[in-house]
Specification:
This protein is mainly beta. It has a domain of 104 residues: 6 Propeller (Neuraminidase), CATH 2.120.10. It contains one helix and 24 strands. The strands form six sheets. The chain has a four-stranded antiparallel sheet with strand order 1-2-3-4, with no helix packed on it. The chain has a four-stranded antiparallel sheet with strand order 5-6-7-8, with no helix packed on it.
């Protein structure tokens, strides 16, 4: 009798596990994504706008004294980037298909934080990857646009490329193209607060003559004067420095905080940390030692550097957390996004 009861319980347990596994694997892939994404911004008053995925749905939040959800999109969509307007009353965000293809377009929205009213500003038949508001003119928005989405070379995966920098004047609904570089990639778009120029990360391939030499290029930070975009200048940094990726300028300290490979872990996965380069002392300092994937540094109005950290870089699902620190690398702390 006891054996019969144990056997019956075992059947019920196994059946329950199979049903649970079946339910889990029947969930569409696009609905399995959960947690914090990498997109965020910090306003002048310290509010934080950020994106999470909730059952695959990209969800835009703003944290001040409390956390407020202001946008949630369908699970087949993604939020590519966002920017808080200087008055702190609304957020710009650009969305596109989660699974990009050659027919994908991008739509820029402006959503009111208090009311939740979401209006479309413009739609482009291309992939808008980054946004940056001109600190000298809050009605002028700069953006990176990838004009092609296909196989860049035979055997390569689909990828948005042919990138250039554009601007949009909100007052008169006017777009303007500022560069004609057709770069494979661009990132970390920043607008100067001192003159009419932009800063951007891309490969330093000015001296590349053959496709083979292209593999020897390094990621660098460029300053591009908008009046003469062909006269782009590499920001001075030692030539033997490894690739620079995401970056932010720290004007008060004559420094550049940037992402670069620091090491590899026991599984052979690269560890990306944040470094600084000082133009006056010409010194490079490693700021973080998190043994993970530190990315997307932003300089806040409080004088702190905010950045994301993925503790499972190379894994199937990102495990992002928001951090901040002083520009010299001291007082590294995780930023709670709870109320």
């Amino acid at each position: 009798m006891r054996k019969t009861i144990l056997f019956s319980c075992l059947i019920v347990l196994v059946t329950g596990i199979c049903l649970l596994l079946g339910f889990t694997y029947n969930i569409p892939d696009e609905e399995k994504q959960q947690g914090l994404s990498g997109q965020f911004d910090v306003s002048s008053n310290g509010n934080i706008a950020y994106v999470t995925y909730e059952k695959g749905k990209p969800t835009l939040h703003v944290k001040s004294n409390q956390v407020k959800q202001i946008v949630q999109l369908p699970s087949n969509q993604s939020i590519l980037d966002l920017a808080i307007m200087p008055d702190g009353k609304s957020v710009l965000y650009v969305n596109s298909d989660k699974e990009l293809d050659e027919e994908s377009s991008s739509t820029l929205h402006q959503v009111d934080i208090k009311s939740g009213v979401d209006k479309i500003i413009f739609t482009k038949d291309a992939i808008v990857t980054e946004l940056a508001i001109d600190p000298k003119d809050e009605n002028r928005l700069f953006y990176i646009q990838a004009n092609k989405f296909s196989n860049y070379s035979p055997g390569a995966t689909l990828y948005p490329y042919d990138c250039d920098v554009y601007s949009y004047q909100m007052e008169n609904d006017k777009h303007q193209q500022h560069t004609e570089l057709n770069k494979y990639s661009m990132s970390s778009l920043q607008v100067s607060s001192e003159d009419d120029s932009i800063y951007i990360q891309m490969d330093d391939d000015a001296d590349v003559e053959t496709e083979e030499n292209g593999f020897e290029t390094k990621g660098r930070v460029f300053k591009i004067p908008l009046a003469n975009p062909d006269y782009k200048m590499v920001i001075s940094i030692p030539e033997d420095t490894q690739d620079l990726y995401d970056f932010v300028l720290i004007p008060d300290r004559s420094e550049l905080v940037y992402q670069a490979v620091a090491n590899t872990n026991s599984a052979g996965i690269y560890e990306y940390e944040l470094f600084s380069y000082n133009w006056e002392t010409q010194s490079i300092t490693q700021l973080t030692h998190l043994h993970a994937y530190a990315k997307y540094p932003i300089y806040g109005a409080d004088g702190k550097v905010y950045f994301m950290v993925d503790d499972d870089f190379g894994g199937r699902d990102p495990e992002n957390s928001l951090y901040r620190m002083n520009p010299d690398g001291s007082s590294v702390e995780e930023v709670s996004l709870e109320e």
